[in-house]
Every structure is written in C-alpha cells, then in structure tokens.
Amino acid sequence: MMASRRNGTLYLGVTSDLAGRAYQHRNALVDGFTKEHGCTMLVWFAAFDDLQEARQRELQMKKWKRAWKITLIERENPRWLDLFETLF
Question: Where is the GIY-YIG domain positioned along the sequence (predicted)?
C-alpha cells in the first residue's frame, strides 16, 4: 500500500517488482491515481509466492473499509514509516 501521508490517501496494488514499482510511484513516473494523489510512501506490503494468490488478496482488500486498511498499516507500521528503503 502506498500513502500520501499518515492517514492520507491510500493506494493498493499488485506487482511482481515491488522495489521498481514503488520507485515509479515515489518519483511520479507513472500517470494515474498515485501521481494525482501524491501516494509516494510505501507503508505496507505482503509478499506472495503465487501471483494469482496476490491478486485475490488485492481484490479482497479493495473491498475493505478504509478503517480496516489503516488498522492493518498501524499494526505493522505504527509510525507510518516509508518502507521503501527496507526493500534493499
């Protein structure tokens, strides 16, 4: 999940290259939602061995209430740190 700031706009997506995709979002290299809303911070992620399983989880989470997503972020990243650097 990418965020614009703590408790800001959230973006949820799936990729097979998290570091590369997060870099694109951080640097506004791709037109779309994240660029328009300034979602540049990687605040939560989960790794899956199976892309289909990851897509199913994404679809499930996109139906979640915003409060549930915030609870998930705050449980694993209570200070809303940008996790991008932890990928390396």
Answer: 1-71
Q: What is the chain's Cα-based Rg? A: 12
What is the rounded CA–CA span in Å between residue 18 and residue 28?
A: 15
What percentage of the chain carries pLDDT values higher than 70?
100
Domain boundaries, the chain: 2-87
Give the integer Cα–Cα distance in Å for 55 and 62.
10
Give first-to-last CA distance, the chain, whole Å: 17
CB distance 55 to 21 below 8 Å: no
Residues whose CB is less than 8 angstroms from the CB of residue 67 and which lie 6 or more positions away in sequence, other chains included? none
Give the strand pairing for 2-3 and 41-42: antiparallel
Residue found by looking up tokens 């939602």 in the block: 33
Return the structure tokens found at 16: 């097979």
